[in-house]
Amino acid sequence: MRIYPPRLALSSALALAALGLLAPPAAFGQASVPSKLVVGVFNRTYLVQAFYRSPAWAAKMTSLAEARNAAAAASKLDEVDRLDKELAGAQALAQKQLAGEAPLKNILDQLQPQWAAIAQETGVDLIVPEPVYAGPGAAFVDVTPAIVKRLMAKN
What mean pLDDT is predicted for residues 51-68? Predict the structure, then answer.
C-alpha cells in the first residue's frame, strides 16, 4: 500500500475539522457579573404612626377642623355633616391601617415622589412592606428610619 502525503494531510485536516464541529460550542463569559438584589423593608406600624403624626397630616386635619368650624358658624349643617364624616373616616382608616386591616395606599401615595430618593439613600433596589419568603443569602435593609425622617420633615 502506497501512502500519498498530500492526501494524508488533507484527510487528517478534514477529520480534525469534523471533530471541531462536533465539539460543544464555546462558552462566552458575561460582560458583568449579575449583582444581588438588595431589598428594602419597612415596619408597617412605624410607618402608620409616623404618617398620622406628621406635620403634613396635622395641617390637613387642622384645615378640615377649621372648615368644619366655619361651616358650623355659618349654620351650613350639610357641610358640617360632610366634614364630620370625613374627620371620623380619617380616624377609622388610621385605626384600621394600624391594625393591618386596611391598605396603606394613602400613605404610600404621599411618599410617591420620594421613593427613589429613599432607595438611593438606603442603597436598595426594591422596597416592600414585608417579604413572604427569603432564600439563603438574601439581602434586606430596613428603610423605616429613612421613610419616617421624610414623613416627619416639615414641608
Answer: 93
Domain 36-152 has CATH 3.10.100: no
130: closest CA among 52, 50, 40? 40
Q: Where are the domains of the chain?
A: 36-152
From CA 77, how far away is CA 6, in angstroms rounded? 110
Helices 55-73 & 77-99 angle (0-180, nearest 10): 150
- Widest CA span in the chain: 123
**Enclosing H/E stretch for 40:** strand 38-41
Read off the pTM.
Answer: 0.70
pLDDT in tens, 118-137: 999 999 999 998 888 888 87
pLDDT value of residue 130: 85
